[in-house]
Amino acid sequence: MRACVPGIRRRRELALRALEIAVAALAAGGVARAGDDSAIDGNSQAREYHLAVGPGIYSYPHYPGARGVQNLLFPFIDAEYANRFYTSASDLFGVYGYKTDATELGAALEYDPTRQKVAGDPRLAGLPDVRQTSRLKLFASHTLGFVTGDMNVARDVEGRKQGTLGQANLWLTAPRSNILRQHRARHDLG
To answer: Most buried residue, 106, 113, 125, 151, by most Cβ within 10 Å?
Structure first.
């Protein structure tokens, strides 16, 4: 077992170094672009940061592919600085490489609390335990009208052999507008 430890340490060091390089590259590119945006917009009153804090519940499967879910109570934090750096519920620290009102590209270090012990469950015999870990996540999101598409790829950076996860979503958003109020008013009148 001791022979594996240096290998795991080496992979962890390489992963953390890759994270440092990705964050530095995204931040450097983003800072340069942020300076250009302020000159274009002419808005010197742009907000530097925002912060929202409150109670939160993180719901996740007992293990990847499970039917049941677990709930984890924790403080909800959503913070952003200079339209470039952020932290949120599961993203411990993130950097936007490119961000507009409709598009986001970036990287984040996220916490994945998913865990499952295989011992005692015959359905999972032969599979390794699923352990909590931190992941380096690369993400992209784009909104066009009421449709938003996003995708991310996240890889275990702690050397816990938890693999790489990918996810893609398509969101449809119903606008809150006067259309709903007008529809309700017509029914109230008669």
So the answer is: 106
pLDDT in tens, 12-47: 666 666 656 555 555 554 443 444 444 444 454 557
The answer to whether residues 132 and 63 touch, using CB atoms and an 8 Å cutoff, is no
**What's the CA gap between 75 and 56, in Å, rounded?**
5
What tokens were used for 40? Answer: 């274009």
Provide Rg for the chain, Cα atoms: 21
Cα angle 96, 170, 56; round to 5? 65
Enumerate the domain spans of the chain.
4-189
Specify burial of residue 75 (Cβ count, 10 A radius: 0-12, 13-18, 19+): exposed
Among 48, 58, 54, smallest CA distance to 78 is for 54
What is the predicted pLDDT for the residue at 98? 96
